[in-house]
Design brief:
Diaminopimelate Epimerase, Chain A, domain 1; 17-stranded mixed β-sheet; 17 strands; globular
Length: 333
């Protein structure tokens, strides 16, 4: 009987199901090679954990694997309803706290550094520790950059839609939701999902992507619809990220905030050291700032710092009985 054990957390309302046992050994190699192995040979376990009856369409997971990069404290593969992403900020925030609480790194007050190897590269988490207990977490991700700025695409029923494409560990299309006649707090979530999904499809067809580190990173993960603000003067800017197979992030999206900061910086809208506030569709907030400017291949880039809180929600042991075909995982929508 196949058994898997997990610890569930959430960051800003977005779930993180951390696998603690049950996966077979993952072959040695680079993190992208491990990602390919899990995708090609162990995908039935992702479906078992992410899909119904144990998960749902918007479930998210993290599988810890042996690090390959020098200096990494742990390495992680991210999973969702469609497959395996290259970066996930809300999961990094949860894993930073988890690593301290589980003794994967020695707790140091007032801040413990946790080096997390992700498919996009090394991400450095900074975990606040008081009395031996982990609290808020911020992270500095891989170099982020504006890939395509001030583009337009014609969309049926909406006309010309303006957007940017930016990289924050994953590529996103960024667009003001008002172009679709949407407004946070008034328009239904379904309308945001439909608009963002249509935008992703249009941008994938219109903008070929490339990344200087690896072709495995060059895919559009999803679209982020914003309220048109930039989070300055202590006023949060709202956004919603719709990624993978129309999965909706309940958090402000750590890699998405990173991408937004990169686009804003490229357009002169934020300086190094400035902090902005980002709010999700459910009202949770992340802070975001430009830690420093850098380069990534041919691109002017930044290293962003994004912060939030993660909380535990439970533990579970899942199994699959012989003959339970539905137990292998399914989705209604």
């Amino acid at each position: 009987m196949q058994k898997l054990t997990v610890i569930d957390m959430h960051t800003g309302g977005e779930p993180v199901r951390i696998v603690t046992g049950g996966y077979p050994p993952i072959p040695t190699g680079s993190i992208l090679e491990k990602r390919a192995h899990v995708r090609d040979h162990l995908d039935h376990l992702r479906k078992m954990l992410m899909f119904e009856p144990r998960g749902h369409h918007d479930m998210y997971g993290a599988l810890l694997v042996e690090p390959d990069l020098p200096g990494a404290d742990l390495a992680v593969l991210f999973m969702h309803n469609e497959g395996y992403s290259t970066m996930c900020g809300h999961a990094v925030i949860a894993l930073g706290r988890y690593a301290v609480d589980r003794g994967l790194v020695a707790a140091v007050e007032p801040v413990t550094t946790v080096n997390i190897e992700c498919p996009c590269g090394m991400v450095v988490a900074h975990v606040e520790v008081t009395g031996g207990k982990a609290g808020a977490v911020s992270f500095e991700s891989v170099p982020a950059f504006l890939f395509a700025g001030d583009r337009t695409v014609d969309m049926s029923g909406h006309g010309a839609i303006g957007f940017d494409v930016a990289y924050g560990g994953a590529f996103y299309a960024l667009a003001d939701c008002r172009q679709f006649g949407l407004e946070f707090g008034r328009s239904p979530a379904r309308a945001f999902v439909d608009a963002a999904t249509a935008l992703s499809e249009a941008v994938r067809a219109a903008v070929p992507l490339s990344h200087p580190e690896s072709p495995d990173l060059a895919f559009l993960y999803g679209s982020i619809l914003t309220d048109g603000g930039d989070g300055r003067d202590g006023l949060p800017t709202k956004n919603v990220c719709v990624f993978a197979d129309a999965e909706v992030d309940r958090s402000p999206t750590g890699s998405g905030v990173t991408a937004r900061l990169a686009a804003t910086y490229a357009k002169g809208g934020i300086s190094v050291g400035e902090t902005r506030l980002f709010e999700s569709i459910v009202g949770s907030r992340f802070t975001g700032s430009v830690a420093r400017a850098t380069r990534e291949g041919p691109h002017d880039a930044i290293v962003a710092r994004v912060g939030g809180r993660a909380f535990y929600s439970g533990t579970a042991e899942f199994w699959l009985e012989d003959g339970d075909e539905l137990g292998r995982g399914f989705l209604v929508r």
